[in-house]
Structure formats: structure tokens, C-alpha cells
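Methods — Computational structure assignment.
A single polypeptide chain was analysed. Its primary sequence is given first, followed by the predicted tertiary structure written as C-alpha cells.
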Amino acid sequence: MARDIPVGNGTLLVCFDQSYRIRDLYFPHVGQENHVNGQFFRFGVWVDNRLSWVSEGWNLEMRYLPDALVTDVSLQNQDLGLRLICNDAVDFHENIYLREISVENMQPRPREIRLFFTHDFNIMGNSVGDTAAFDPKSGGVVHYKESRYFLANGYAEGSEDLAQFAIGQTGTQGREGTYKDAEDGILSGNAIAQGSVDSVIGLTLNVDGMSTRKAFYWIAAGQNWDEVRSLDARVKKRKPEELIRRTADYWSLWVRKETPPLQHLPEKVKDLYFRSLLVVRTQVDWQGGILAANDSDVIQFNRDTYSCIWPRDAALVAHALDLAGYGVLAQKFYKFAADVIDPNGYFLHRYNPDGTLASSWHPWFIGDHPQLPIQEDETALVIWALWNHFVLYRDIEFIKPFFRPLIKNAADFMCRYRDEITGLPAPSYDLWEERRGILSFTTGAVFGGLTAASLFCEVFGQKDKADQYRQAAAEIRDAASKHMWRNDLNRFCRMISVNKDGGIEVDGTCDASLWGLFAFGLYTVDDPRIVSTVAALQNALLIKTRVGGMARYENDGYYRVSHDIPGNPWFVCSLWMADFLTDRAHDEKELAEAVNILVWVAERARPSGVLSEQVHPFTGEPLSASPLTWSHASFIASTQRILRRMEKINICPECGLSPMAQGRREDWLKELFAQTCDSIHGICQVK
């Protein structure tokens, strides 16, 4: 079940499923140590001697408040005569999750309404050795293990304390869980349990007929008992509604700090642009790691999650943040990358938010020989993104410490890691992590990474290194034109493999990732070979259902629902087509095709604005991880690309200015990039 309406602050992240149950709670890193681990934190309402767990007979609408990481959840149950409005937030500064509940009694008579909140913690990802205990000092319930503590508390209007609580064991010896204790509306008051434990707390509201009363609930996260008690006391002193309000104000200020000319785009595109920025922010850890997604239900597919940092995905997300004006946030990722890069100049498959190596399925040894278990595009795109960051922000003092250990180290590796026969980047795994060979996408990325490294060396005064990297990029471009372009297909191929006798095997599958051939400067979008390649992709990968969109590649089996189509629509792949159309557009009429793809994405987002990885090709429902950070970042980047193209299209021939100009200062560096690409193409022997 896809995740929706995540709220977080970079240290504490809380995710809900589509039934408004808390399913994931990460602390003290975004994406690491899931203390719910896919279990359920239920929310129940008891009235007229009946208990109803939310989602059973409730009409739910799950959205956010405008321009804020604060939810706006409406729950209505006609049978019970109740309507609830809930606002959830993680305080922007303190590690406190908060919920404000407005309870409307839709019947004319006064009624007693009890709210129940359950907690099935799996602290540090498992339930072994957990303890839950009532804390008389705070009046709340504390779940803890080792250095992880979570204090759950709340109160209703007219009261200062919990009305009820119960603690017990779950999942052992046939025990279903303490949440069953709430079904009669009365909790046992058991004060402690250890092992596999859960708890329930209750609040009581007396609500007049046709009236509304409020209740508040929160969870404080810390590393010891005193810390969570202190946070709990802060909530009571400042009041939870005030903390939620200040958090909404903070995120509204954060997301509106830049003023891109979005008035030139449809309103739904504008709304999703700002929502995407906020959703991306929830997936960025305080230590700089940018998580691919945080949706523990994906575990059911292969017993692993997306809660890791892929350097490629993270570099593209950081680039989107840079384009949108959030360079300081992107800096944190570049610092993270510099800390985890291998001394030999490459990034391994993926990393945990604390910088340790994450799980991988790429082998170090295959057949009868060792190999590097890498996706080389991940190394290249970090350098490419870092150069584009420098173009925008000119933060020389920030770049300086990374020049040798990150930039030159990675570039030297890319120069070394070449196939002896073709001159292309040596075999590595593809961005889809399914095949190993010499890939068009990786070739484009390595060209972009080496070009970026040569530019860094140029501006930092190391001309010999600049020439070396530029020459390697030129040789790779020559080799791509010779080997990746296939006359028999009249387009570029996805991958080649060099067999033991030096022969070349061609994988001609139409793959949306051929976007990488122009995205990082290897070729221009006006190159007839690129035009021919994209035409073939459109013909092969366009989903011909009412849902539409672009598949990843022909016969994609990942979450496949039908063999009548090439695969499921991916937001990222659809937006790559928008990028091509944008770069090819000469006027606003041609640009409208790209804008229509942005509209397509916006119309297939969840009502909250959350984007999944894929959508069902016949229903449009989300598939796979949700929210996917890469989907949101691609939307941001494609929107920025369109705005910048609009700016160029609208340049006045008289004064040379555009009414859409955003006051950017990177012109001289862009000119240097263009000159460098021209010089590389001048070196190339194959045009």
C-alpha cells in the first residue's frame, strides 16, 4: 500500500498509508531505523458504545494544508454521525510528531466521544527487547530500547491528561495486541510490559449536539528518558496547536523563498511544483543523504526497501534542488558524497543515511573473475551535478575541499575505467540495476562527468588535468558514435557487450534511459541520431491506454500488470520525454507539448500531491514505492527546464532581455561549458 502525506524535519520522519495509519517512523535518520517497520498505529473512535477503527466505514480525504508540511485529513462516518479534521506535523525544529483532532458531533444530542491511539513499535526494526511503561511524571506512555525512546501523550479540551492507557504484549502466544482492549471503550491501565509490546492511550471528549471540540496527540522522540520528558513538557508549555501553526508558517516561508515565474504554467502544475519541493525535503536526512523512498511495503516484493541513498538518484535530486534555489540543501548531499566515495574514485551501489554501505545485489565476483559491483553513472553524475551547482552558486570556498578527494579522484577513475576494445566506459550495471554491460545512459553520464571535471580544473587553474579529462570525453564521444549508434536500427542501442573474442553483442531494446545521451551534453537534441532515437522510443514505449505515459523499456516486468503494453507508466520516463520536447521547442506552441506532460503528471498525483514510482496503466493507481523522491525531483527539474526555455523564447530582439528573466548570474560559466563542449566535439574524430 502506497505511502501518503509524509511529514518530517530531516531527523524524524512519519509516513502514513492510505487508511491514515502510521506505518513508518524513522529516527534519528530519515530512512534508517524504522521503528514501526510496517506495523500499524491505529486510530479509533468510540461513541454510543461502539468502537470504529478509522478506515472501516470512514470516508477519508488525505491532503496537505497549502504550502506546508502539515496534513489536512478529513474523516467522516455518516453511520456514527461524526466528522473529524486532523492536522499532522513533525515540528520543524524539535523531534516531536503532533496531531490536532477537531471532532464534530453531527447529531443534535450531546455525546461522549473517546479517541484511541495505538502504538505497535518495533524499535530499531524489531520487537526483541522492547519495553513500554506508563510514566507518572509526564503522564504519558514511553516505548524504549537502548538509546531510542518514544513518549506518546495527549489531552482533550477541558483536560490536561490522558483519560486512559493500557500496555501489553503482542504477537506472542496468540496475543493479537493490546489494541483489542479498546473495543469496549475502557482500557485496563496495565502499566508496563516488555518484549514484543504495544500500547493504547485514550482521550475523552464531551461534545454538545451539532458542536465541535478538539483533542491533541503527540509522540516525542529522543535518546533517553529525560530527553523525551523534556520534549513532552515543551509541548504542554507551548501548546500543540501553536507548534503545528509555527511549523506550517516555517514550511510556507521555506517553499516560497524563491519566486520562479510559475504564473506562466497551469495552476495544477504550479501546485505540484511547490508540493514536490516539500515532499523532497522530507526525504533529505540531516547528514545529507537523499533517500530514494521510504515505503516499507516494498519489502513484500524482495525483502528490501528503497530507504537508501543511490548516488545517481541523489545527484539528480540535488541538481533539481539547485535549479529550484535550494543550494544549501544540495550542499549537504555533496558533502555526504565526498565522505563516502571510495578512495579509488568510485561510488558503490548504495549507502545508508549514516554513511555506511547499504545492502546490494551486485556481485564482486562473477564466473571466474572479480569485478567492480558498481553503476558507473552514479560516480559520473555526482560530479556533473556538482559542476552545475557551482555554475549556479559560485561557492568557491565550498567546492575547494572537494576538488582533489572527490572531483579529481572520480575523474581519474573515469579515465581509467575504460573498455580496451571500444574506448567506452568499461562494463558496469545499468541504472535499472538489472543488467551489466556498456550502456548508452552510462556513456552519456560519464561524458558529462568528465566534462564537468575538466571545467573544474579549468577554473581552478589545472590546465593539464583539464586537457586530460577533455581528451577522454572526446574519445568516449567518438566511441559512442561508432559503437552505440546502430545503422541497422537507425537509432542508438541500449547496451553493448564485448565477448571474449572481441566481438560486439548489441542490446537494441528501446529504453527510455537513452535520454542520457543528450541530457548530459554528449549529443544535442537536434542531432538527427537523437531525433531518430526518440521517435523510436515514442513509438515503442508510449502507453496506449486512457492513462497514458511512457514505460521504462520494452517488456518491462517490474510490477507488470499486463502483457498487452510495454510496461507500466513511470513518471520519470514520461518527464524525460518532456525534457526532449522542451529542448527542441522554438516557440511556445511547440513548448506546449512539454507542458502537457507536466499536466499529465499533476493529474496522476495522489490528491495530496504525492507521486509514486509508477502508476497502473489502466486505473492510474500508484504502484511501487510512494512517494518516490526521483519522481518529484524530475518534476521540479523538468518544470525549471521549461521555464528557462520560455525565458529564451521570449527574449526581446531589441534589448536582448526576457520578461521572464529570474536574475541568474551563471552566464559566464554557461558560456565556458558551451566552449568546452565545442572544443571536445572539435577533438572528436567521429562527428
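Note: The chain has a mean pLDDT of 94.
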